[in-house]
Design brief:
Layout (H helix, E strand, L loop, with lengths): L1 E5 L4 H13 L3 E7 L15 E5 L4 H11 L3 E4 L6 H6 L1 H22 L4 E4 L1 E2 L24 H20 L3 E6 L1 E3 L8 H13 L18 E3 H14 L5 E4 L10
Parallel strand pairs: 1-2, 1-4, 2-3, 4-5, 5-7, 6-7, 7-10, 8-9
Length: 253
Amino acid sequence: MKVLITGITGLVGSHLADYLLKSGNHEISGFKRFRSNEQNIIRNAGKIRIVEGDLEDPFSTRYIIEQIKPDLIFHLAAQSYPKESWNAPLATMRANIDGTINILETVRNLNPKIKVLIACSSNQYGFIKESDVLIKEEHPQLPLSPYGISKLAQELLGYEYHENFQISTYLPRFFNQVGPGQGERSVIQTFCRQIALIEKGEQENKLFVGNLSTKRDFLDVKDGVAAIWAIVERGKVATPYNVCSGAAPSIKE
């Protein structure tokens, strides 16, 4: 199977490439933005094809999909930090919504049989009361950040293109994925980095933290990529699936 992964240099994209290389006879291509850091994909140099472009450019998007002719697209590329979306709301919308439209429009016009998985987010649910846990997919979606709104729009686009053009879209809602290669803006990686610096004697013997009472669902990224592969193999099209551990420890824990 020919697989195209957008956002392959990110946490989920790079681990998905690892998973697919180990699990089957797939021809894997990765779509990366110009000048994106390739640290997460160096380990698979020579095993995957890397193409550069910009998903916000419909011509670039069409050209690459035409060249690769994928059977399946994992659309993982995004501006993926809710906090940063407040500093750059329009850039977040363009990256997440325009990029998704360009992929779906290309598939619609080029080959509607291409399957497309669109990475959605738990951020779409907005504020969650403790009494609402465990969150089911039917829970109301009231996002409270530009990022959450953009992710909800991506999911609705996936649903719409399936209903109108019969494209097989898959809609996982990711909770917090954690693992090697994650950016330092995530809380667990921030703690890990500080501990490493303390062990090296480059930071005082003190861990600097934020709000420790917040509760989050954390899932090992290796389990996350296994889940999304299961969704495209056995899941229902245009149907949301929560991808999570089902537990929500506090940051203090």
